[in-house]
Amino acid sequence: MDQEQLVTAFRGQDPEALQELVKAYGDRLLRSAFLLCGNQTEAQDIVQDTFVQAIGSAPRFRGNSSIYTWLHAILLNVTRHYHRTRKRIVYNDELASTDLCPLEENPSNPDLETISCAVGDALRKLSPSHREVLVLRYYENMKIREIAAHLGISRGTVKSRLHYATREMQNWVPAEMNLFASSGTKQKEST
Questions:
Q1: Phi and psi (nearest 5°) for 155?
Q2: Can you tell me the distance from the alpha carbon of 21 to that of 71, in angstroms, rounded to the nearest whole number?
Q3: What phi and psi values does residue 87 have, to the nearest 5 degrees?
Q4: Looking at residue 92, what is its pLDDT?
Q5: Over the chain, what is the mean pLDDT?
Q6: What span, in angstroms and rounded, lies between the C-alpha atoms of 141 and 97?
């Protein structure tokens, strides 16, 4: 099925079209949801809720954007709702203050898992609005104007959020693995 046939079938509530959409975009949406909420199980729930809402809204899809962009907009709304309504129960203050992924003081050879864990921890510390722009810019590879249109904010607001989010990431990701640091990119380019 090509993209146009897929959209037409999806609008018509064809179950095969939904399966095609899940197969085509499910993993990508799951990655974004995980980066936005920081928990694999909750990310799966968010993606599932995204597809449920998409099914209910399918007849109203106008085709002004790509189907993925539309699905991702639904995902962002579901994620925002998740952040507004979730309530955490903490039984032990000591447990709540510990890092999910403890890092060595000076890791000699950071591997992918350690880096991923450090970036994930830092992303969870960001505000939802700063996390959204970072995920859209660096993980979804959207341009500033696309992010602005996607979130319904001005380009200047996107740039400001990116600036502050990047600055916060510089503070939270260890220096030896920090590509957000001002010297990180220069060192990376020279090697």
A1: -60, -40
A2: 10
A3: -130, 130
A4: 43
A5: 77
A6: 33
